[in-house]
Backbone:
């Protein structure tokens, strides 16, 4: 599906370069937008499948200067692990994109 492909490509674009600073995380906002649109269009029973995606994005996109263990900062490592988990999750779990014909029908019947 399209949303999975966009998530995978954007995560790879952030993780593959040898140096990736926080500003490169801006390229992850487009997949979050697509994920939100997908969540709005999926039935409420299937929305539970999207919770891990949103939790990982919440961890990735928040400032993580608070992750300190024995006076060592682990925010880069935590973000890298979450990006890897997001990559694996997007590769394994399909995000349903609604059929355009059904979406068009629902829009026409609503008017």
Residues:
């Amino acid at each position: 599906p399209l949303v999975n492909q966009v998530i995978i490509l954007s995560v790879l674009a952030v993780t593959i370069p040898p140096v990736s600073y926080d500003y490169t995380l801006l390229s992850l906002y487009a997949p979050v937008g697509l994920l939100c649109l997908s969540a709005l269009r999926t039935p409420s029973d299937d929305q539970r499948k999207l919770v891990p995606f949103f939790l990982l994005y919440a961890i990735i996109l928040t400032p993580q200067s608070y992750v300190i263990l024995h006076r060592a900062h682990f925010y880069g490592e935590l973000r890298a692990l979450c990006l890897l988990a997001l990559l694996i999750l997007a590769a394994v779990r399909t995000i349903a994109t609604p059929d355009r014909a059904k979406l068009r029908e629902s829009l026409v019947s609503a008017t």
In short: Residues 75-92 form the longest helix (18 residues). The two ends are 29 Å apart (CA to CA). Residues 100 and 106 are 10 Å apart (CA to CA).
